[in-house]
Amino acid sequence: MSSFSVFRSLVPRLGARYSSHATVRQKTLTDIKKLYKAKEPLAVITAHDYITGRIADSSEKLDIILIGDSLAMVSKGYASTLEIPFDDYYYACKSVLRGVNQKFVIADLPFGSFEASVSQCVESAVKLMKLGKIGSLKVEGGFEHGEQIKRLIEIGIPVTGHIGLKPQQFNAVGGYRVQGRKAQDAANIIKEAEYLRDIGCSMLLLECIPHKVAQYLTEKLDIPTIGIGSGPGTSAQVLVQADLLGMLDSPTAKFVQKYMNFHSEAVNAIDHYVGDVKSGTFPNIETHSYPIKEEEFEAMEKILQQDH
User: Fold this and answer.
1) 276 to 112, 270, 280, 282, 292: CA distances (angstroms)
2) Which of 9-23, 53-67, 113-127, 162-176 shows the lowest per-residue confidence on average (mean pLDDT)?
3) Which of 31, 100, 205, 268 could make an SS bond with 27 (beta carbons 3.0 to 4.6 A apart)?
């Protein structure tokens, strides 16, 4: 058979393979905006590796996956988001994206990857966007990073702003504190939000600001707001997946709702496994083992005897 004939015989199978993939369509920014205009509350959770990406993508109801730089703490064990190198975050994104096929994805620009200059910001952003499947990049900050944000939008990269508590700047505000409790501080947050909207941000993440301020902002702006620790009046809510699943045994913030205690259940499951191993009930010969025909085993023994 000629090489052309072989190729032609493969075409139907290749076509079937690609057509089956084509039935799975990843959500786009247009889909998110349609839900927002329909006043549908949006649900967002983070993912930090392939497994959590798969879990999030498997949810029929979830709208958005955020590859938050919070993975530095919940997945990599750093003390803050400031410490993770860009390459560590980049490879974490690659891992998450291998598990995502359907959800809209927002990825962070981690600390140190965009602040120095517009060119540094563009270089980091392009590297992340070339991974595919990322629909928007999130930049912490407002006025101070305006030039970087504007340039990303100019070259066609949708940007999600991040104001209120900015974890990448926690040293400057004395720790992880609620922002905007004083009138002037709240007014500054609103002005920053308007600025980010005006320069073209597609969405805004509002972290740890008073719920009335977050609701006021959401009603005033014409772009979706994503709240975390900012009350129920935002367009969307986001939680760290490790927090909502109870993956860690450490305390969580006031605004976190824990929907299961994965850590406790996982430890119990491991203890159960260890007990089965020590008692000899795992592995079970019938259930967990692979057989060999008796004649084959005897033939093996004869071969070994002959070799000696």
Assistant:
1) 48, 10, 6, 5, 25
2) 9-23
3) 31
Q: Classify residue 16: in a domain, yes or no.
A: no
**CA quadruple 138, 200, 223, 55: dihedral sign:** negative
Give the pLDDT band of residue 161 (cuts 50, 70, 90).
very high
Centre a 10 Å sphere on the Cβ of residue 252 and count the other Cβ atoms it contains.
15
Position 172 pLDDT exceeds 60: no
- Angstrom CA distances, 51 to 66, 88, 99, stand at 14, 17, 7
Give residue 209's pLDDT. Answer: 96
Rounded to 5 degrees, φ, ψ at 288 are -115, 5
Residue 89 is assigned to a structural domain of this protein: yes
Does residue 162 share a domain with residue 274?
Answer: no
How far from each other are the two terminal CA atoms of the chain, in whole angstroms?
47
User: With bands split at pLDDT 50, 70 and 90, how would you rate the model's confidence at 141?
Assistant: very high
In the chain, the DSSP E strands lie at: 42-46, 64-67, 104-108, 136-140, 159-164, 203-207, 225-228, 236-239
- Same-domain pairing of 182 and 253: yes
pLDDT in tens, 247-264: 999 888 899 999 999 999
Instruction: Give CA–CA dist 211/230, Å, rounded.
Output: 5
Is the separation of the CB atoms in 196 and 142 below 8 Å? yes
The number of folded domains in the chain is: 2
Q: Which residues are catalytic?
A: 207
Closest to 44 in 3D by CA, of 61, 58, 28, 30:
61
Q: Are residues 141 and 273 in the same domain?
A: no
The β-bridge partners of 213 are: none
